[in-house]
Amino acid sequence: MHHHLKVTGMSCGHCVSAIEKAVKALDPQAEVTANLEKGEVTVNSDVDMAPISDAIREAGYENQDLGA
Questions:
Q1: Whole-model pTM above 0.90?
Q2: Distance between CA 46 and CA 35 in Å, rounded?
């Protein structure tokens, strides 16, 4: 499944790494792509949206589902 999120507070490579680590803790096979300029993250994973969103929030980044 493709998940597209708006992520608040993501401003550097360290932020991207933290988000990627949080997602991959749920699904090691997940593909995570971040666009720092837009503040958006795309996740390709078999895991549902809610746990991914929660994991990113627990890593310190508020986020909103933008749809697939």
A1: yes
A2: 21
Among 3.30.1300.30, 3.40.228.10, 3.30.70.100, 3.40.1010.10, name the CATH number for the domain at 2-67. 3.30.70.100
25-46 pLDDT, tens digit per residue, is 999 999 999 999 999 999 999 9
> What's the CA angle centered on 16, arms 51 and 44, to 5 degrees?
45
The contacts of residue 13 (CB under 8 Å, 6+ apart) are none
